[in-house]
Structure prediction request, 318 residues.
Amino acid sequence: MSGVDQLVDGVLAGDTRSLARVISIVEARGGDAEAILSRLAKHLRGRPVIGFSGPPGSGKSTIIGRIGEYLKGNGLKVAVLAIDPSSPFTGGAVLGDRVRMVSISSTPGVFIRSMATRGARGGVVAYVRAVLRVLDAAGFDVILVETAGAGQTDVSINDVADVVAVVVTPDIGDSIQAIKAGLLEIGDVYVVNKADDSRSSYTASMLEAMLGRGGDRPVVLRTVATRGEGVDVLAETLLRKWEQLKSGGGLQARRRRQTIAEVAALIMEDFRVAVERFSTDEEFVSEVERLIAEGFDPKVVSRKMMDSILEWMKKVKI
Ligand SMILES: Nc1nc2c(ncn2[C@@H]2O[C@H](COP(=O)(O)OP(=O)(O)OP(=O)(O)O)[C@@H](O)[C@H]2O)c(=O)[nH]1
Ligand SMILES: [Mg+2]
Prediction:
């Protein structure tokens, strides 16, 4: 049996070590990544991917930890993927996430993984979605994803999750810009966490007013994640929303959109790599210099060179 077969079989059999190893290969786009992903593709189950986004410190990890416990209590296998925007050099916040979620990380049935995406040069959405597919094929019933708020990370939660919860704090009223900065567009459910703060009902009403009226507007809920209050209702609301989306066709539409974005990201990434390598190629450089010397505009030169880059890409199989 080849190494790839062994790893894939391990993942499908629920072996956590094989799973961790496969995720590392996929994350690093290792040589076997394509073969592994192709083998796992036959085993996809399309289970819910629930995203959590919101300002730093709003309580995303605490909520995810509680929801993980709740779902596990209901007999579900849960995976958590924390996409951390913190520096990949220190890994501080990644560790922070691990520490705070420690109560569930040691419990069978909840698998936690952090991914550092900062510093990755492109195609990040594709890496994340590939890891999510691995988790789906591995048999988890629900996958919870944490990302930092809009604009603070390379990965927009809407590009990777089926249903999105935006987690804010009662003091968000003081920073309307934060809400305006894209948060109002991305959520299916809004959570005012830290509802042990007296301003939480005001903030929830304000959010409801800002989200407007109409059948399809997002729900606003309040939670005290540290005490687990409101978390069960939140978990049920998110799963119900997922079921509704699925039966109404919205889920398929979202996933199709995400897949197209993923493929586009991969194509761009391949082009970036090809152009970078090609531009240090002696023949390429002298051809460009020759054309420029002949008086062609750089835009015309780039068009002329595109064909040779494409040919070269086919030959070297980037
Ligand atoms: N008072 C109060 N504190 C809370 C509540 N939920 C979380 N916290 C605290 O808020 C702090 C941040 O919580 P996290 O869950 O790490 O928040 P986060 O959104 O994941 O933070 P980042 O990943 O750094 O963006 C921690 O000290 C939590 O204990 C709550 O409901 N009430
Ligand atoms: Mg966190």
Remarks:
- The chain is about 55% helix and 10% strand.
- The beta strands are 49-53, 78-84, 110-116, 142-146, 163-168, 189-192, 219-222.
- The chain has a mean pLDDT of 86.
- The CA atoms of residues 42 and 298 lie 46 Å apart.
